[in-house]
Amino acid sequence: MLRIAVPNKGSLSGPASAMLHEAGYRMRKESKELVLVDPVNQVEFFYLRPKDIAIYVSAGKLDIGITGEDLLIDSGAEAEVILPLGFARSTFRFAAKPGTVSGIEDLAGKTIATSYEGIVAKHLAEAGVDASVVHLDGAVETAIELGVAQVIADVVETGTSLRNAGLEVFGDPIMKSEAAVIRRTGAEDNAKVQQFLRRLQGVLVARSYVMMDYDCRAEHLERAVALTPGLESPTISPLHNEGWVAVRSMVPAKDSQRVMDDLYELGARAILTTAIHACRL
Ligand SMILES: Nc1ncnc2c1ncn2[C@@H]1O[C@H](COP(=O)(O)OP(=O)(O)OP(=O)(O)O)[C@@H](O)[C@H]1O
Ligand SMILES: O=P(O)(O)OC[C@H]1O[C@H](OP(=O)(O)OP(=O)(O)O)[C@H](O)[C@@H]1O
Ligand SMILES: [Mg+2]
Fold first, then answer.
1. CATH code of residue 217
2. What confidence score (pLDDT) does residue 281 get?
3. Is residue 245 part of a domain?
4. In whole angstroms, what is the distance from residue 212 CA to residue 57 CA?
């Protein structure tokens, strides 16, 4: 049975469970369930604190886990990303009151509040800066106002939390992060893990592509296919009307309206897009 660590709370928990559900796995019915067996799919899910997942996975008793890349780096655990999942995208940044700090070189002797001590300590050591780090569990943006630190290092997505606290980022982003499937560094390849990854990849593709069908005149086919090259190559079928063909191709969902406009301009008609529910590439 494949043993998988899943975030039990926080920003990662809902989207991770939604993705697993979309991939056909059983989901827990209530948040007090800590372990869930899915006998049909031969998988056992362990619902763990997101910060602990890389540590469990690196210890070797769990095959893989879903966590944030920033949490993985922060933990210092011997585990690596095997599939980025495209949600919980964020950057990790320093921030302070405007005009008080302009770059990492100004941090010497200052106190930095963060929930991610591992990332901050590593970054300061690499930059050769000697600063103090104070650990807070959350709501780090308030630490400056309340005199606990002069600088914070935290997750930034929209920047709203920083703006609301009257803070401003400075320096380059310390790292970018998104949710990912992780595995113990150097773990042997495993057919069950590969099958799990194919299912999640199927969800990622189904979310980001649509299926496009249209009819076009044979003499316009090459130009039409250039607009809709698909992942491998479009399917072309003859129409009963001579001189016309039907084309079927996967198109990135974000481009679909523009591609439909361009195909129409080219003379294509009966242009349809449909959602993809699942796929194996
Ligand atoms: N506002 C956000 N936007 C995008 N990703 C976020 C956001 N906040 C946290 N994350 C990401 O979620 C992960 C942190 O998850 P975790 O559950 O530990 O924290 P949380 O969502 O802040 O929950 P908690 O309430 O327990 O602090 C990290 O990978 C982080 O980059
Ligand atoms: O740039 P933004 O879009 O504002 O998002 C970033 C904020 O979201 C997270 O906080 P969360 O709500 O999880 O609270 P926490 O600080 O208690 O973890 C993170 O810690 C930042 O504070
Ligand atoms: Mg948080």
1. 3.30.70.120
2. 85
3. yes
4. 40
Whether residue 202 lies inside any domain: the answer is: no
Closest CA to 64 of 231, 172, 190: 190
88 within 8 A of 7, measured Cβ to Cβ = no
Nearest to 62 by CA among 195, 199, 182, 196: 182
Ligand 2 first shell, C-beta below 6 A: 11, 138-141, 154-161
233-279 tens-digit pLDDT: 999 999 999 999 999 999 999 999 999 999 999 999 999 999 999 99
Mean pLDDT, to the nearest integer, of 53-71?
97
Best residue among 135, 155, 160 to mutate for probing ligand 1's pocket (most ligand atoms within 8 Å of CB) is: 155
**Ligand 1 atom 16: residue of nearest CA:** 10
Could you tell me what percentage of the chain is helix, strand and coil, using 3-state DSSP and rounding each to the nearest 5? 35, 35, 35
* C-alpha of 48 from chain center: 18
CA distance 26 to 47: 13
Indicate if ligand 1 lies below 6 Å from the C-beta of 93.
no
Bridge partner list, 64: 4, 183
| Nearest CA, atom 13, ligand 1 | 68
Mean pLDDT of the region 196-209: 96
Q: Are residues 64 and 23 in the same domain?
A: yes
User: Is residue 203 in a domain?
Assistant: no
Domain that residue 243 falls in: 209-275
Global pTM value: 0.93
Q: How many CA atoms lie within 13 A of 143 on its CB side?
A: 24
The answer to whether residue 51 is domain-embedded is yes
- Residue located via tokens 């929209």: 158
If you count DSSP H runs as helices and E runs as strands, how many of each does the chain have, helices first? Answer: 8, 15
Locate the ligand 1 atom nearest the alpha carbon of residue 88 and give its number: 5
The mean pLDDT value for 15-41 works out to 95
